[in-house]
Amino acid sequence: MKKLEEIFRTKHRELTHNEKIQLVRIKEKAMSLAVEFNPTDTREKSVALMKLEEAVMWAVKGVTS
After folding, report:
1. DSSP string, 3-37
2. Domains contained in the chain, number
3. % of the chain beyond a pLDDT of 90
4. Which residues constitute the domain of residue 28?
5. Structure confidence by residue, pLDDT tens digits, 1-42
6. Helices 17-36 and 43-64 sit at what angle, rounded to 10 degrees?
């Protein structure tokens, strides 16, 4: 089982230059995808935006872990 410090990442490490660039790219791509559909139109689009936010969160965690 993982230690709680690993699960909650109470200590952070310095990101490399490439990791920082990767995070910017991930967020820029998510932003351009969100712009493709107006997330305020329908509930479905709102849910899609929420899932996109979740995907970005997991991608960031994957890069920074």
Report:
1. -HHHHHT-S--PPPHHHHHHHHHHHHHHHHHHHHS
2. 1
3. 60
4. 15-64
5. 678 877 787 788 899 999 999 999 999 999 999 998 776 788
6. 170
Pairwise CA distance, residues 39 & 44, whole Å: 8
C-beta separation of 30 from 50 below 8 A: no
b/e map 14-30, b = 16+ CB within 10 Å: eeeeeeeebbeebeeeb
Q: Is residue 8 part of a domain?
A: no
> For residue 39, what is the enclosing H or E element?
none
Rounded to whole angstroms, the Cα distance separating 43 from 58 reads: 23
Q: Is residue 55 part of a domain?
A: yes
**Structure-token match 């559909």, residue found:** 37
For residue 9, the one-letter residue type is R
